[in-house]
Amino acid sequence: MGSNTDFQSDHHPYRELKRIVEKIGVNLEDRAFALYMDQEDPLSHLRKEFAYPKMKMLKGVDLSIVDPEEDCVYFCGNSLGLCPKKTKEYMNIEVEKWEQTAVQGHTNGDLPWAWCDELLDGDMAKIVGATKEEVCLMNGLTVNLHLLLISFYRPTPERYKIMLEGKAFPSDYYAFESQILLHGYNPKESMVLLQPREGEDLLRTEDILAKIEEEGDSIAVICFSGVQYYTGQLFEIDKITKAGQAKGCYVGWDLAHAVGNAELNLHDWGVDFACWCTYKYLNSGAGCLAGCFFHEKHFHSDLPQLRGWWGHKMDTRFRMENKWEPYVGAYSYRISNTPGFLCPSLKASLEIFKKTSMSALRKKSNLLTAYLEALINQKYGRHKTDGDNNSHVCVKILTPTDPNQRGAQLSLSFSVNITRVFAELQKRGVMCDERKPSVIRVAPVPLYCSFEDVHRFMKYLDEALQAANK
């Protein structure tokens, strides 16, 4: 994974980029190539659906070296997606409804607060490859993970471990650790942390499967990230799920960096449970409602659950008899009233997704990410000896080269101080993020990023590295 051989292989989208280069007679690094790709891009119109920050509006931008009226280079959708233009309109509708109708807003309008989430979860289910009954929208990601672990992590003296990647996102790690402690077990003995081979950055699927085979009889739950937040590696969800379940383990996924970024088929893959946030590639706004998946094969099981009023069927909920009559499916996990003011922004984003498909987004994403990958490898893939201004700079791409093992994100490791590089990128209006000790994450999101954005990024990266390397 991630080798030059993979980059040159016949199935890599770089081959398509080279074919186009030969067809139109320009170099890959020429702006004319980026403009041609944007002109031919069938999804380019979706950019107009989003509010794009201008250089002049962002803190830390040096307006003496960039055009204040120009769009920033927004490669940070892996952290927070851009705001759909319809969001403000839909939010204002709900505020006005509250002003004008007060409590009647619970059962009136386009998004009645009492069941506003139920008008959106069908569209969400399509994005993750699930049935409507398997998906609900509620809480935040880690809250949903805890609620699901109540059901699926039921340790016994023989089967008490949780398997996860060694560099799991801290919130996931804390959730697993605390669940283990709540059940009276020792996290040091109960957490199986998978690490890459020495000298490598990525987990190999064959090593994950081997570890499952080795320790599976003592593992209660396997829970990985769909896309690893640090490296950008997209795990082979179907293979890992199948292997874990064959050993009697429940298998779940944190899809925070995968949903809206990779094609998912949770139902067909037989995933037991999953959870995700919606503010990254799903563009719902900071801290918005999270998603929860509960496979239908468990609908009529005796798995324990925490209960709340909103998990009770609507038709008998208001009898107030304290006789538990849960929904069948994911709705049974709902505990509290859905926040009505968190649904409008999610509605605005899901409407944009309905104008395309995940397969179309992935097709563009593969080309867009390969274009960025190719330019980085061409410019910084090895130390230069030809008098280049950045002769002492090398950029290593940690993310797999295989397009089937990554989404939009590339994690870049630099041979120079990334804090300085990151600061210089910010001065030029490049929105990305850094993860210590040496990684800057960049994500050209296909919904709203262009090939010209990639070309501009490379220009600003070159300037930033020159400034940081002085």
Automatic annotation (TrEMBL):
GO annotation terms (biological process): 'de novo' NAD+ biosynthetic process from L-tryptophan; anthranilate metabolic process; L-kynurenine catabolic process; L-tryptophan catabolic process to kynurenine; quinolinate biosynthetic process
Xref: InterPro entries: Kynureninase (IPR010111), PyrdxlP-dep_Trfase (IPR015424), PyrdxlP-dep_Trfase_major (IPR015421), PyrdxlP-dep_Trfase_small (IPR015422)
EC number(s) recorded for this UniProt protein = 3.7.1.3
Q: In which pathway does it act?
A: Cofactor biosynthesis; NAD(+) biosynthesis; quinolinate from L-kynurenine: step 2/3; Amino-acid degradation; L-kynurenine degradation; L-alanine and anthranilate from L-kynurenine: step 1/1
On whether Lyase is a keyword of this UniProt record, the answer is no
Instruction: Give this protein's Gene Ontology molecular function annotations.
Output: kynureninase activity; pyridoxal phosphate binding
Classify the main location: cytoplasm
- What keywords sit in the KW lines? Acetylation, Cytoplasm, Hydrolase, Pyridine nucleotide biosynthesis, Pyridoxal phosphate
Its subcellular locations are:
Cytoplasm
Catalyses: 3-hydroxy-L-kynurenine + H2O = 3-hydroxyanthranilate + L-alanine + H(+); L-kynurenine + H2O = anthranilate + L-alanine + H(+)
A Gene Ontology cellular component where this protein is annotated is: cytoplasm
N6-(pyridoxal phosphate)lysine sites (modified residues): 280
| Record text on subunit structure and interactions | Homodimer.
**Record's family?**
Belongs to the kynureninase family.
In Swiss-Prot or TrEMBL terms, this protein is called Kynureninase
Starting at the broadest rank, the lineage of the source organism is: Eukaryota, Metazoa, Spiralia, Lophotrochozoa, Mollusca
